Amino acid sequence: MIEENNSPKTDKQNTDNFQKKVWITVGIVSFTLISLLVLKTTFNVFLLILAGTLIAIFFRGVSSFIERKTGCKENLAVLISILGTLLIVAGLFYLIGAKVQTQIADLVDTLPRTIENVKDRMNNSTVGSEAIDSMSSPDSTKKVQGFAGKFFQSTFGVFGDLYVILFIAIFFTIAPQTYTEGVIQLVPKRGQDKARQIMEKLSKQLRNWLKGKLFSMFVVFILTAIGLAAIGIPLWLVLALLAGLISFIPNFGPIIALIPAVLVALLQSPQTALLVAGLYMLIQFVESNFITTLVQQKLINMPPALIIIAQLLMGALTGGWGLVLATPVTVIVIVLVQELYINERASNSSSQN
């Protein structure tokens, strides 16, 4: 009798519990979807903030070096770092700007003729003719235009993005503690020490990665300039600058830089184009197997396949900025996973044992 009297009450409790679980599940799914939509909408802005942060890390690294070598005050070192860097960049553009501008104009004039020469050579063979017909079809053209539009998309326009990045970098450089402590204050008090530790590790990892990447870019520029000048490529300076700058993008950067260099070399002869292709592959081999290896010794382990996957995903979602900044985003994600999950799980397991 007692079980019969309690069964309706038990059924009602089970029903209430089920409804409660359903509403909790609906709430979690809704919150997740809304968060993903907001993240997708604002992710490009976060990429600009990350780009500004990387430049601020560079400015801070230069100012720290000035402080150590000269013993001047922090504010003065920061000012020298920012103004000095901007003046050096402006001076380089001024000194080599005329030559680079001339070579860029020659490159713009040269590429269409080179492409026509390549088409003529390919039309002489059946396979080449079919490849040209396939690439010049309306569907292929539409796909290329869609990809280019996606790749070169920007949040505020190219110059607007650069303007935002530069001023974010300057503000972060002048008062980094204001922004880092502001982020830490958003964390509950019992987790602020952990948050501060994670921020310090992120800063260290990004600083090491940036130093290695700048060194790698410089080496690629020097080796490419020497190689192209030795081969006798007329536009060697602008092509070397392009190779050095684009090498900031791992994996895909060297391929992008190779295309205009080979097209220019084809104006001289196919043999020259093969020499240029071999030079770029040799430089890429040296950069990947020696320079990058030395850089990785100071960084957390980043599997090459993981970087490529991150580049493909972020490039498809956000265009050029995602492809350029995929590696530092991967560094941030790996550090967060290590600190918030793997290390915590290991410490919990050891405490239980």
From TrEMBL:
InterPro entries: AI-2E-like. Its main location: membrane. The chain crosses the membrane at residues 21-39, 45-63, 75-96, 156-175, 214-239, 245-267, 274-295, 307-337. Keywords: Membrane, Transmembrane, Transmembrane helix. It is a multi-pass membrane protein. It comes from the Bacteria. It is found in: Membrane. Pfam families: AI-2E_transport. Belongs to the autoinducer-2 exporter (AI-2E) (TC 2.A.86) family. This is AI-2E family transporter. It comes from Flavobacterium frigidarium.
